[in-house]
Design a protein that fits this description.
Elements: H1 22-31, E1 46-47, H2 59-66, H3 76-89, E2 93-97, H4 100-111, E3 117-120, H5 125-133, E4 137-140, H6 161-171, E5 176-182, H7 195-208, E6 212-215, H8 219-229, H9 238-247, E7 251-255, E8 266-270, H10 274-287, H11 298-310, H12 314-333, E9 346-350, H13 351-354, H14 364-376, E10 378-379, E11 381-383, H15 385-388, E12 404-408, H16 416-431, E13 439-443, E14 454-457
Parallel strand pairs: 1-10, 3-4, 3-5, 5-6, 6-7
Antiparallel strand pairs: 2-8, 7-8, 9-12, 11-12, 13-14
Helix pairs in contact: 1-14, 2-11, 3-11, 4-5, 4-10, 8-9, 12-16, 14-16
């Protein structure tokens, strides 16, 4: 059993959280049409819906907020952010935006032409949507080990280089817009990508004159895994590993709400392509605001600049990932199946294995998510066929590679005792797993349905 890694910080402020009864929670779910995004946050005991923007900022970040410069143009927080981002990523051009999907919105239309294909180790839902909104077709080629949730592999998030090259040759390189490397690989279970795989992807892009873009939401966690799992990097700092990682790519998009530990913010960084940067600036002005604030308040820029540095601190990352590993070990001891080993930001419960009687059409990941809230007031999130949606051309329900219920752990928020409550709730659900029902959708939007869909249980 892995020992819980003690927090490298002390607590200065607390926020009370509400305790509810199972009867109350069942009523709340009915009112929310069985969509956990529609639940009120006040009715959640432990909120593991996402690690995006839900972390606890440090005293230094809050101090930065108090001295934020709210000038419309040329705010000093922008200069501070650019300086820190250039130092960490090694890229010349830095454009702040309000969050990760905004970064995709101002970059992807410049890279993707109508009908072109974009390849990734695995697109997350919002990234996939922005490929499609730009007229492209998203294609996933994650390594085959990602489908094996039971056995240990160091880097289950890797891009399958062989399949990617075969696909490029099959459809023609002129029909490929870009390769996007997601680090860590969220949809595959928060699994890391090796430095060697990033190098190989870079070489492939150079061979076919394609751009490599890194989805960098959890870049620091990925760097920690490289340091602890790749022999050549054991003595290197997180910062040095990060700079090498991005040296192999041409640009990055980033939701800074994860590894930069802010409540709002994002980045587009471009290595040295001035024309591409000019295009990004123009779209930023149109969609986000002037280039030096990019849809953010000056105080947000300052908190982000500070958070970038805090997010690459080794002691913090050791605690952060150690917390996830502790939860994983407790669940493994209890016989609860999940994507093993534990990812960097979350535990991805294997709902297909825990609820084998529920087909992908009835969304086992969503069923487990709902059951977890019923049992203990814990909010999680489906990362499976429910989130994946339907084929854009045929309208048929797509089957996800895995049917996950994701327990995303906010940074610097919950304690060991909270994680133990999660384990106890899942042990109880496991004891009555055969009684859990699947769900069907009664209404859904055209894009990113899982945020606002309405469902009902199949009785």
């Amino acid at each position: 059993m892995k020992k819980y890694v003690a927090e490298p910080f002390k607590i200065k402020m607390v926020e009370p959280i509400k305790m509810t009864t199972m009867e109350e929670r069942i009523n709340y779910l009915e009112e929310a049409n069985y969509n956990v995004f529609a639940l009120k946050s006040d009715d959640i005991y432990i909120d593991l819906l996402t690690d995006s923007g839900t972390g606890a900022m440090s005293d230094s970040q809050w101090a930065g907020i108090m001295i934020g410069d709210e000038s419309y143009a040329g705010a000093r927080g922008y200069a501070h952010l650019v300086e820190n981002a250039q130092d960490i990523f090694g890229y010349r051009y830095v454009q702040p935006v309000h969050q990760g999907r905004a970064a995709e919105k101002v970059l992807f239309p410049l890279l993707i032409k109508q009908g072109q294909h974009a390849i990734s180790n695995m697109f997350f839902d919002t990234t996939r949507a922005h490929v499609e909104l730009s007229g492209g077709k998203p294609i996933n080629f994650v390594c085959e080990q990602a489908a094996d949730t039971e056995n240990y592999y160091d880097f289950k998030g890797n891009l399958d280089i062989e399949k990617t090259e075969a696909y490029i040759n099959k459809v023609g390189v002129e029909n490929i817009a870009v390769i996007v490397m997601t680090i860590t690989n969220n949809s595959a279970g928060g699994q890391p990508v090796s430095m060697q795989n990033i190098k190989d992807a870079s070489a492939l892009c150079k061979k076919y004159n394609l751009k490599l873009v890194i989805d960098a939401a959890r870049f620091a966690e990925n760097a920690y895994f490289i340091k602890t799992r790749e022999e050549d990097y054991k003595e290197k700092s997180i910062k040095d590993i990060t700079k090498e990682t991005f040296s192999y790519a041409d640009a990055l998009t980033m939701s800074a709400k994860k590894d930069a530990i802010v409540n709002m913010g994002g980045l587009v960084c471009i290595k040295d392509d001035e024309d591409l940067y000019q295009g990004v600036k123009e779209l930023t002005i149109a969609y986000e605001g002037f280039v030096t604030y990019g849809g953010l308040a000056g105080r947000d820029l300052e908190a982000l600049a500070i958070g970038l540095k805090e997010g690459i601190n080794y002691d913090f990352l050791k605690y952060r990932i150690g917390q996830i590993e502790y939860l994983g070990d407790k669940l493994r001891e209890a016989g609860i199946p999940f994507q093993y080993p534990a990812g960097g930001h979350a535990i991805f419960l294997d709902a297909k294995a825990l609820l084998p009687h529920i087909s992908f059409h009835q969304f086992p990941g969503q069923a487990l998510t709902i059951e977890l809230y019923k049992e203990a007031g814990i909010r999680a999130c489906d990362i499976g066929s429910y989130m994946l949606g339907v084929d854009a051309e045929t309208g048929e329900q797509l089957e996800s590679l895995n049917e996950f219920c994701r327990l995303a752990i906010p940074r610097r928020v919950y304690t060991q005792a909270h994680l133990d409550v999660v384990v106890e709730a899942l042990v109880e659900i496991k004891s009555r797993a055969a009684e859990v029902n699947g769900y069907e959708i009664t209404w859904q939007p055209k894009v990113l349905r899982h945020f606002t869909s309405k469902l009902k249980p199949i009785l």
